[in-house]
Amino acid sequence: MTEPLFDKVAVIGLGLIGSSMARGMKKRGLAATITGFDGSADVRDRSRALGFCDLVADTAEEAVKDAELVILAVPVGAMRAAAQAIAPFLANGAIVTDVGSVKAAIVRTVASALPEHAAFVPGHPVAGTEHSGPEAGFAELFEGRWCVITPCARSTDASVEKVGALWTALGSTVETMTPEHHDIVLAITSIIPHLIAYNIVGTAADLEDVTQSEVIKFSAGGFRDFTRIAASDPVMWRDVFLNNKDAVLEVLGRFSEDLAALQRMIRWDDGQSLEDHFSRTRDIRRGVIDAGQDTADADFGRPHGHED
Amino acid sequence: MTEPLFDKVAVIGLGLIGSSMARGMKKRGLAATITGFDGSADVRDRSRALGFCDLVADTAEEAVKDAELVILAVPVGAMRAAAQAIAPFLANGAIVTDVGSVKAAIVRTVASALPEHAAFVPGHPVAGTEHSGPEAGFAELFEGRWCVITPCARSTDASVEKVGALWTALGSTVETMTPEHHDIVLAITSIIPHLIAYNIVGTAADLEDVTQSEVIKFSAGGFRDFTRIAASDPVMWRDVFLNNKDAVLEVLGRFSEDLAALQRMIRWDDGQSLEDHFSRTRDIRRGVIDAGQDTADADFGRPHGHED
């Protein structure tokens, strides 16, 4: 254990990300005290039982009182209300950060809700699983992952540095960019993949000639990877789509154009163009593996055989 | 070791599937002799070095001579040529089967190329990884997976039963359906997912504002799962798309319609409809896990932390 980075940290929102951060900070001794709060009494009770916070408060006020750092880990659509709820109780010089998957909209809505005497450092850990809730969190979630920090007019150099140090200590590599650039990068790497996965799973459910049991049986051919992504938290993703509308619609337009081009190649038996396109995408896969963002093990290292 | 199911088996095409079948049959003693052949001299040499066949022949003739079972494990577009190459040398009463991912087109083109004295049992093991070539194969690839058999006019009851027994012995569960129904089921569970994955990886590569290194860095947010699928063999998939055109275009049309509907919900801030759609797709994921087609471990059980 080294000297804690923070005296008191408050985590608002105790789902997958919030509870993982609390666990990670506790494991590494990054905060002298960690308090938690969640709008759901049920989640508060479950979090108390899990014990990853020193104290789970019954009000936002109690949680953020005297906190040096307040982490907003609620769905994107609930960020502004969460910011308003904590605003009157923030200590002088408190740093507020968030973990939302969109940044420009959060800068607009959260920054204006916070008092002048607090700094705001927007952040986005690019990590997660398809599971939700306080039980799903674990201390290692952020290790080896990227965290994007998008400083805004309400960020000070010192607050950006401290929030960056927290993510580094949690095992992430920090990258800084503007909120707008973050939103377009994440639209293609995360948001559109989720939208497409949700979409194809829905299309499958609506086919009259194919039963749901057949879809499930034969899902190992590729479909199951989409179902995993499409199992992610519906409320979180609804908010992400609605709050990053410009970038999502822009990238989606390009995706649909490109898909129409592939569809045309199939209709007109243009095998050479198809093969050229498919060969090109292999290079990007190699880049993902070389960068340590995935394993090269066949089938993601899923177990084969009857033992699974 | 039990009594071998077959005296001599010939495997034509020594890629991921062919070499995995040879390894699986050898491991379980399902054939007294296994011969292999591949159109590429390089693949033949590498397969000899790997040693998963008793003999890798230099001609298709030598490979299939006196074989009780001949397995065509070449890309779909090469099936007819492979059938024509072996046809003159097939033993009386030989059974020919294939492992192609489309079935109606193969029934049309392969059955007519084979002599009357041979039976043909079309098959499709729904198993695979994103890797290709003889080095990528392993004996357990088919364990716990489904194999679809689509009997045709050239199948006899006895030949269907024997091919089914082979797949059962390799660890798969056999399901029988018509070639046409197979093609629509696989269009949604496998073919369209691959097409979409190839497409989005291409769209990402073409964005002017986002560098390839950014796409790779932030791929853990969902994109990397698409890159895995899009790393599959380009020639194999080109053939699958072109040879299952009707079902692919039909399902793709539905997918695009559904995607346009989601796009409209985003444009018009219809959060309730988005959330309803996303909640519904979670049920299908649960079905996939309950059916043992995937693991419920977070993130496919990918390792977290610096040890990975």
TrEMBL record, chains A, B:
<dbReference type="GO" id="GO:0006571">
    <property type="term" value="P:tyrosine biosynthetic process"/>
</dbReference>
<comment type="similarity">
    <text>Belongs to the prephenate/arogenate dehydrogenase family.</text>
</comment>
<keyword id="KW-0520">NAD</keyword>
<feature type="domain" description="Prephenate/arogenate dehydrogenase">
    <location>
        <begin position="7"/>
        <end position="296"/>
    </location>
</feature>
<dbReference type="InterPro" id="IPR046826">
    <property type="entry name" value="PDH_N"/>
</dbReference>
<comment type="pathway">
    <text>Amino-acid biosynthesis; L-tyrosine biosynthesis; (4-hydroxyphenyl)pyruvate from prephenate (NAD(+) route): step 1/1.</text>
</comment>
<dbReference type="GO" id="GO:0008977">
    <property type="term" value="F:prephenate dehydrogenase (NAD+) activity"/>
</dbReference>
<dbReference type="Pfam" id="PF02153">
    <property type="entry name" value="PDH_N"/>
</dbReference>
<dbReference type="GO" id="GO:0070403">
    <property type="term" value="F:NAD+ binding"/>
</dbReference>
<dbReference type="GO" id="GO:0004665">
    <property type="term" value="F:prephenate dehydrogenase (NADP+) activity"/>
</dbReference>
<protein>
    <recommendedName>
        <fullName>prephenate dehydrogenase</fullName>
        <ecNumber>1.3.1.12</ecNumber>
    </recommendedName>
</protein>
<keyword id="KW-0560">Oxidoreductase</keyword>
<dbReference type="InterPro" id="IPR036291">
    <property type="entry name" value="NAD(P)-bd_dom_sf"/>
</dbReference>
<dbReference type="Pfam" id="PF20463">
    <property type="entry name" value="PDH_C"/>
</dbReference>
<keyword id="KW-0028">Amino-acid biosynthesis</keyword>
<dbReference type="InterPro" id="IPR046825">
    <property type="entry name" value="PDH_C"/>
</dbReference>
<keyword id="KW-0057">Aromatic amino acid biosynthesis</keyword>
<keyword id="KW-0827">Tyrosine biosynthesis</keyword>
<dbReference type="InterPro" id="IPR003099">
    <property type="entry name" value="Prephen_DH"/>
</dbReference>
<dbReference type="InterPro" id="IPR050812">
    <property type="entry name" value="Preph/Arog_dehydrog"/>
</dbReference>
<dbReference type="InterPro" id="IPR008927">
    <property type="entry name" value="6-PGluconate_DH-like_C_sf"/>
</dbReference>
